[in-house]
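Model it.
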Amino acid sequence: MARNFGRDAHRASKKAAASAFDKVVEQRWANPPLEDCEEETIRYLDTASSRVTQRVWRSRSDSRIVDCAVVHEIAHEEEWHEVAKIDCSHQEVHRHEATKDKTGTRLRTVIRVIYSQADVEDTYQNSVDEIFDNLVENEGKWRHGR
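Modeled.
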């Protein structure tokens, strides 16, 4: 019986790629349990129609940032709606986009994979800056894409 070497090679390639991906995922940093951290919430902007909130979790042992989220919300029809968010869940720093895909799920863009605590701290200030630099744009995307 003849073998299909092209198909076999494709399967072997996919298996090798999956194995490499698993090794990369294993190398990602796992932050300490949030119960072992101090939470700090800061509201940078707080008007009747717009607010930006930062939540930071710091290790109790050394006060270093181990997790963070920066969220821009706007008031619409007497409710607050999230229009932009950058956070560190899923062992990566990622941006939740204001727009949604065809299924209604908000798009998510990975900014950086987290391999160490330093990666969280290195991207923290950039995340705050990015939210503020795009306040008007993100609100417009949300209003036109909801």
